Amino acid sequence: xxxxxxxxxxxxxxxxxxxxxxxxxxxxxxxxxxxxxxxxxxxxxxxxxxxxxxxxxxxxxxxxxxxxxxxxxxxxxxxxxxxxxxxxxxxxxxxxxxxxxxxxxxxxxxxxxxxxxxxxxxxxxxxxxxxxxxxxxxxxxxxxxxxxxxxxxxxxxxxxxxxxxxxxxxxxxxxxxxxxxxxxxxxxxxxxxxxxxxxxxxxxxxxxxxxxxxxxxxxxxxxxxxxxxxxxxxxxxxxxxxxxxxxxxxxxxxxxxxxxxxxxxxxxxxxxxxxxxxxxxxxxxxxxxxxxxx
Length: 294
Hints:
Blueprint: H1 3-17, E1 27-31, H2 40-50, E2 55-59, H3 66-69, E3 74-75, H4 85-105, E4 111-115, H5 125-138, E5 143-147, H6 153-163, E6 167-170, H7 172-177, H8 183-193, E7 196-199, E8 204-207, E9 212-215, H9 227-240, H10 245-267, H11 273-289
Parallel strand pairs: 1-2, 1-4, 2-3, 4-5, 5-6, 6-7
Antiparallel strand pairs: 7-8, 8-9
Helix pairs in contact: 1-10, 2-9, 2-11, 4-5, 9-10, 10-11
């Protein structure tokens, strides 16, 4: 993917988000986390804000990381140490109110659910996903980003189709668990599920089942805890600003990849996830400020 195309996508997203109405930048609902992996949903929430989302809600078990996020996102209160069907129902109720506010104010953004960061560590993840399917049977107004393979195999593909996922983000192990061992298999998974599929790697591979896009930006140091949560939050925010799923994925991969390259040069291997959040915001700023090429 050319930098000029990334800049075009960024300009389009910002043109919507900077329309002057609260909500033009869209609203993101993050659903995830577990006792084993408590931090990922909160990292994703901050990433969504760094990428321009006007508002973020988090449905996740309480965790120390929540204190660092509370000034930038609204946390759904009263949830237990593991998510359950009640937490999903609460998130759905809040989401409907979010969508209603966007309609009432004529904001141009949309509501996006980001499901998955940290959820894989939950012993009841399957029941949470069952509850999500039940909600999505009756309400698909929000766009849906899934971070992870939902356990992999044919059941996961069927679940993604049933959920009506718009975008699925996979690391190498998750792609293999879903049977997407190469570009052709990833495209087949996209056709079967109806979702744009992203296989993170060198390069990142994005496909809607018909067209495939390669994003070469990146750094080997991104293969660590936290980077995928940042990518998921950025992609959800860009989708909330009304980019198409493949476009949101492409720009998110470019921004996070560029941020990783910058950190790799400036800090070496010891950079922290919070530094990646700052570097993503800087990458977006620099992309917007770059002179256009005719």
